[in-house]
Amino acid sequence: MALVNPNFAEEIGKPEAFNASACMNCGVCSAVCPMGIELLPRKLFRYVLLGLEDKVQKNSETIYSCLLCKMCEANCPAGVHIAENVRSLRYYLNKKVYNL
Ligand code: SF4
Ligand code: SF4
Fold first, then answer.
1. What is the Cα–Cα distance from 74 to 76, expressed in whole angstroms?
2. What is the position in ligand 2's atom list of the atom closest to the CA of 40?
3. Residues 39 and 62 sit within 8 Å (Cβ to Cβ)
4. Does residue 2 lie in a domain region?
5. 38 exposed, middle or buried (CB, 10 Å; 0-12, 13-18, 19+)?
6. Residue range of the domain that includes 69
7. What is the pLDDT along the chain (100 residues), one digit of tens a residue?
8. How many domains does the chain have?
9. What is the model's pTM?
10. Which residue in 25, 34, 80, 99 has a CA-CA distance of 20 to 30 Å to 42?
11. Residue with the nearest Cα to atom 7 of ligand 1?
12. Structure letter (DSSP) for residue 97
């Protein structure tokens, strides 16, 4: 069973920085992503909001494969700061998982 960390979203970034809660799961970001990153942000950011830390850690490869090109962001109808969120996730992984 997955462990839930109720403070996970706060650990990743301030609410105004990690603004994934506006996502309405429309799928546009996945459709336009040149890397075909299906997980970002629809599932991954949701994992953060739900406190599913281990699921985020298991998807670290996906988080590092993002090009930060912002194609997704430019087409997101909800104005989610996707690239900035990915940066926050990388910062978290570097610190917490890889001890960098
Ligand atoms: S395009 Fe925006 S609103 Fe749609 S799934 Fe992606 S992040 Fe969510
Ligand atoms: S910023 Fe990342 S997730 Fe968004 S379109 Fe570019 S590669 Fe895909």
1. 6
2. 3
3. yes
4. no
5. middle
6. 26-97
7. 667 888 888 888 765 667 788 888 899 998 999 988 777 777 888 899 899 999 999 999 999 999 999 999 999 999 998 998 999 999 999 998 888 8
8. 1
9. 0.86
10. 99
11. 23
12. I
What residues does ligand 2 touch, defined as CB less than 6 Å away? Answer: 33-35, 37, 40, 66-72, 82-83
Residues with Cβ < 8 Å from 70, sequence gap 6 or more?
82, 83
* 10 belongs to a structural domain: no
Token couple for 99 = 């001890």
44: tokens are 């991954």
Separation in Å, CA 48 to CA 51, 67, 74, 85: 5, 20, 22, 10
Residue to mutate (ligand 1; options 24, 30, 38; most atoms within 8 A of CB)? 24
Q: Per the domain annotation, does 85 fall within a domain? A: yes
Residue 3 in any domain: the answer is: no
Alpha carbon 8 to its chain centroid, in Å, reads 12
